[in-house]
Amino acid sequence: MKNFGENKIRIILDINDLAEKNIDFHEFMSNPIDSQSLFLDMLDQAEKEIGFVTKDCKIMIEALAMSNGSFVLTVTRVLPDADKINNTPRKKIKVKRKINTMLSASCAIFEFSSFDNFYDYGCSLSAHFCDLINKNIGLSKLYLYNSKYYLIVEKVKEDANFIKSFSSSISEFGRLVSNSNTYKNKIIEHGKLVLKKNAIFACSTGFKK
Fold first, then answer.
1. H-run or E-run covering 60
2. N or C: which end of the chain has fewer CB within 10 A?
3. What SS3 state is found at 116?
């Protein structure tokens, strides 16, 4: 834990920390009950270790998932007016989750709630942008796993403008859930391969014919 000003701290949880607390990357980002319990535990620890008291304060927590599978948690507190301080229990915390929009060159995994969502994403792409995808993404595969569809993207060129445009184009239909090779291997092992090699291209062109 590290202080960033009087009312802000930053906590980093690496892969070993997550394993020690028996936390799965995907479940951590999608299960608000478990996540809230973990955040409360960390706030209690922060109070004991560095005196960061959050009682009677409004709290905002940003959870940023990094490409190496770790989390950077930024906790900001808003101190109440003196005449509003009371002994009421701490309110539930509103957590603002952020997924790193920078694609990993080795692996990026996007989740779609249904095949229709993935299909709609492909149909939304222009011919020009499909060409950019083919030039900048070396491999894309689609898997069915636990009733959801996962697009695994690999060998992405480090082009900042393309990465920003690609992340924006896909955000309306799916979400980046992991850059972890471990999670990728889990999907490959237990999921069903639906589209291989050029899944995005197949969806954006082949299905329209």
1. strand 58-65
2. C
3. helix
Residue 23 has pLDDT above 50, yes or no: yes
| Angle at alpha carbon of residue 42, lines to 10 and 49, rounded to 5° | 75
Residues contacting residue 165 through CB under 8 Å, at least 6 positions apart:
129, 132
| Band (206; pLDDT cuts 50, 70, 90) | low
Domain extents in the chain: 2-99, 108-208
Structure confidence at residue 68 as a pLDDT band (50, 70, 90):
low
CATH of domain 108-208: 3.30.70.1950
Sign of CA dihedral 66, 151, 155, 132: negative
Tokens 């996962």, located at residue:
150
Indicate left, alpha or beta for 156 from its phi (over 0: left) and psi (-120 to 50: alpha): beta
Which stretch of DSSP H or E encloses residue 131? helix 127-136
Lowest mean pLDDT among 9-23, 91-105, 183-197: 91-105
Q: How wide is the angle at C-alpha 93 spanned by C-alphas 90 and 171, nearest 5°?
A: 175
pLDDT for position 193 = 94
pLDDT higher than 80, residue 31: no
Distance CA 84, CA 207 (A): 60
Number of Cα atoms under 13 Å in the Cβ half of residue 60:
8
